[in-house]
Specification:
This protein is mainly α and 86 residues long. It has one domain (2-82). The chain has 3 helices and no strands. The relative contact order is 0.10. Residues 1-42 form a coiled coil.
């Protein structure tokens, strides 16, 4: 029983570490996207944003992806593009 608990704790620690790595990757990508957007001319920036939003609309997943997940992704992308980090 103790071995089982120890194994579960090790697996939990590994999952937590993986989660931290994913958060760091997402934050790094946010910083890069924000920096790139800030370097673009306003018209180019708007054209890129519209292109990305249009591509997202065209790529809406089918019924195999929950609607809530799809909407969350779209909201996050819109937030990142329209209101980038400071």
């Amino acid at each position: 029983m103790k071995n089982l608990i120890a194994e579960l704790l090790v697996k939990l620690a590994q999952k937590e570490e993986e989660s931290k790595e994913l958060v760091a990757q997402v934050e790094a990508l946010e910083i890069v996207v924000t920096a790139l957007l800030r370097q673009m001319a306003q018209t180019d920036q708007q054209a890129l944003i519209q292109s990305i939003e249009s591509a997202l609309e065209d790529a809406r997943p089918g019924s195999q992806v929950p609607v809530q997940d799809s909407e969350m992704l779209q909201q996050y992308v819109k937030k990142l593009l329209r209101h980038p980090r400071n």
